[in-house]
């Protein structure tokens, strides 16, 4: 009966986001999601631990991927250059072209306190992974920690501004303006 | 029977932290907390919505307090000077002298995923409030947002390093070294 569904994960994600948007996260059940996707609840739970996790699909792999990217970047880059370079790569490879879906997802996440908390956990997983990447490059713990927080914070601000903008402009532009603002603020006298 | 207990809140917080530390967060019940504090569960729920919230007591007032502090600071301060000044004030008025309690609390929070997520929500409430404070001072949205994130991130890193240090050194020293590192990293060429 259960045929192999190579795109099951994507179909479940799409169906879930549609239903969460149409009728609310709390009001949506896993059986409703699987019905819309034309799949079984058994298939659902093979891919996602619970109803919430369908909104955070694939994000478990991000931190390790980003940590590796930091660790393996050209050795002569300053932390700041590496951050700028890394955020541009992230923006173009994983975000550009998906603004509509990410906006819909953001609206769902913002609608529920538990989802907002879960979303924040991503930040913390990311900055821990990036700090590890910087430590692998030989930076001391403080520099690695601060550089990682700068990277995650700047990207987070850039994404928020990108999603809030009236039309779809390149995310890289928002990354640049955020880093520029960060550099201007921190350069001011104490 | 139920006498007025002016220190009920503090007693519940103390009893809860002791029990969470001794036997674990998941294994502790509200009746156990109230028994140790010599109070009723009714009193408990007058102060805290659930078992989790006893670890986050009083923190709801922080964001508004900090936003007001930012908005009302001397007008000639740069955002960076205001951040440094504000973090010093926070450190000395609300943190110094409480390292042992905060270390115990941190261990409990780290032990439970739900608590870790709840803890992160504090960060987001703080940076939103601080951004509002900066906007009240007339800064544009981007500067206000970035300055607020810098403040919260730097304080968060400083507290982590303060709690992880082998002995009790002033938190203000960790604030200064974190801001110094932040300024050094962001000043480097891209």
Automatic annotation (TrEMBL), chains A, B:
<dbReference type="GO" id="GO:0003700">
    <property type="term" value="F:DNA-binding transcription factor activity"/>
</dbReference>
<dbReference type="GO" id="GO:0000976">
    <property type="term" value="F:transcription cis-regulatory region binding"/>
</dbReference>
<keyword id="KW-0804">Transcription</keyword>
<dbReference type="Pfam" id="PF00440">
    <property type="entry name" value="TetR_N"/>
</dbReference>
<dbReference type="InterPro" id="IPR009057">
    <property type="entry name" value="Homeodomain-like_sf"/>
</dbReference>
<keyword id="KW-0805">Transcription regulation</keyword>
<keyword id="KW-0238">DNA-binding</keyword>
<dbReference type="InterPro" id="IPR050109">
    <property type="entry name" value="HTH-type_TetR-like_transc_reg"/>
</dbReference>
<dbReference type="InterPro" id="IPR001647">
    <property type="entry name" value="HTH_TetR"/>
</dbReference>
<feature type="DNA-binding region" description="H-T-H motif">
    <location>
        <begin position="29"/>
        <end position="48"/>
    </location>
</feature>
<feature type="domain" description="HTH tetR-type">
    <location>
        <begin position="6"/>
        <end position="66"/>
    </location>
</feature>
<protein>
    <submittedName>
        <fullName>TetR family transcriptional regulator</fullName>
    </submittedName>
</protein>
């Amino acid at each position: 009966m259960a045929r192999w569904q190579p795109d099951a994960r994507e179909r479940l994600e799409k169906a879930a986001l549609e239903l969460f948007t149409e009728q609310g996260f709390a009001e949506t059940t896993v059986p409703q999601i699987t019905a819309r996707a034309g799949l079984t609840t058994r298939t659902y739970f093979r891919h996602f631990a619970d109803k919430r996790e369908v909104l955070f699909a694939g994000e478990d792999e991000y931190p390790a991927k980003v940590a590796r990217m930091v660790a393996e970047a050209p050795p002569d880059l300053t932390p700041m250059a590496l951050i700028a370079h890394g955020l541009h790569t992230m923006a173009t490879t994983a975000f550009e072209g998906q603004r509509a879906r990410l906006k819909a997802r953001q609206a769902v996440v913002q609608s529920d306190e538990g989802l907002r908390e879960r979303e924040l956990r991503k930040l913390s997983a990311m900055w821990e992974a990036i700090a590890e990447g910087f430590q692998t490059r030989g930076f001391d713990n403080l520099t690695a920690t601060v550089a990682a927080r700068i990277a995650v914070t700047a990207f987070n601000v850039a994404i928020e501004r990108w999603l809030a903008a009236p039309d779809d402009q390149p995310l890289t532009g928002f990354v640049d303006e955020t880093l520029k603002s960060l550099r201007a603020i921190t350069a001011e006298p104490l």
